[in-house]
Amino acid sequence: MAFHILHTLKHGAELPPEVVNYMYSSGAFVILKDFPEGHEFGIDYKSWTVGPKFMGLKMIPAGVHFVYCSVKGAPRIGFFHNFKSEEIVVKKWDKQKETFSDEVISDEEASPTCFLFVKYHKVSYRNLRFVVNRFRLNLKNIDSTLGPYPFENYRSWYALTDFINGQTVERLNPLKGKISAQAELVSMETCLMENEELNATVGCSNSVDREHPVRTRFVDQQGLPIMKIRDGYEIRFLAIPQLNANENRVGIDYTDRLERVIRQLDGDWKQLLAEVQFAFACFLIGQVSLMSRIFVKLGK
């Protein structure tokens, strides 16, 4: 059965009824609470404009997937997740911040008729297991509000991300767990002012007063403000080793730099290809401008 399902999914063929039943019982689920009607929600290569009853997706094949959404006029925001068989991932939409909320669930939301938002680091394993089990018991009741995974696009997604695995996601995902099409940029002086310990020494100020007669500004050679991605929101790509000035080099041969990068990955060249696929998926599906993030890094 497993081989038949994998062969069917990879080749984009229509799923027979017995495979559909198996995928429903063994596939993963994404539950999204409070996402507004008329906005975009998607997974991998497929996105939809959701209706009033939308609560999430079902029958998601095990493996790495990219789940994302956006409200009109706002950039896409999403997350990579390595789904396990029968796993239930629950998120809650914060309407004010227009992002996935990190709030702890309330007692009222924990009632059997409501849908919950759970963060692994904010609830105990016992409570998490209780919540997931409650969802599992209630899946049949909310089945009509869950859309099926778009299997017709799975072959394309698999071809795009076949080297990406759970290790890749854990290594590259931003610490905040969210990937946004619009980078969370802050100026260098803002970073210093937010760091109270460091600012006590430097004394940065964004305003002019008696204690700070000059407004603090950090600029580059062109006079532009030095920007960086806010901590926790940066995709953690491997740093490319710098060249030594005294190295004898012919032409543009950078083989040695490639070998150094692979050594950082303990010789696992597949993880390097996975990182390239991860970056391209962020650009293609997440609509992330990777070049702007590279320029920000170079400006550090």
Automatic annotation (TrEMBL):
Query: Which species does this protein come from?
Result: Ancylostoma caninum
Name the Gene Ontology biological process terms: spliceosomal tri-snRNP complex assembly
State the InterPro entries in the record.
AAR2, AAR2_C, AAR2_C_sf, Aar2_N, AAR2_N_sf
Q: Which family does it belong to?
A: Belongs to the AAR2 family.
AAR2 C-terminal domain ranges (all copies): 250-288
Protein name in UniProt: Protein AAR2 homolog
Tell me where in this chain the AAR2 N-terminal domain is found.
Answer: 27-174
**Which one Pfam family would you cite for this protein?**
AAR2
